[in-house]
Amino acid sequence: MPPVDPLDWAKHPRSPEALRFLVQAAKNDRVLYRILTQLVADKVCTADGVLLRRWDGARWVKH
Q1: Which of 3, 6, 35, 59 has its Cβ near the most Cβ atoms within 10 Å?
Q2: Largest pairwise CA distance in the chain
């Protein structure tokens, strides 16, 4: 079994609540900020924190 990534919740948000937490936490954490900017670049969410796609455990699906 591969090791568990403790930041998987941030890299693969499954809900608007998880994304809201990430947006707030990214204001004070460089690692989370980089994750957030990658999610915006990948069009998973907007820069304003609107979730466009969510992770269903295996792939990105429209929200």
Answers
A1: 35
A2: 36
- Angle between helix 16-26 and 30-41 (nearest 10): 130
Q: 54 in a domain, yes or no?
A: yes
Phi, psi of 61 (to 5 degrees): -130, 155
User: What's the pTM value of the predicted model, to 2 decimals?
Assistant: 0.92
Range of the structural domain that residue 23 is part of: 9-62
**Domain tally, the chain:** 1
Each residue of 35-60: pLDDT tens digit? 999 999 999 999 899 999 999 999 99
With CA atoms as reference, report the closest residue to 25 among 36, 15, 14, 41: 36
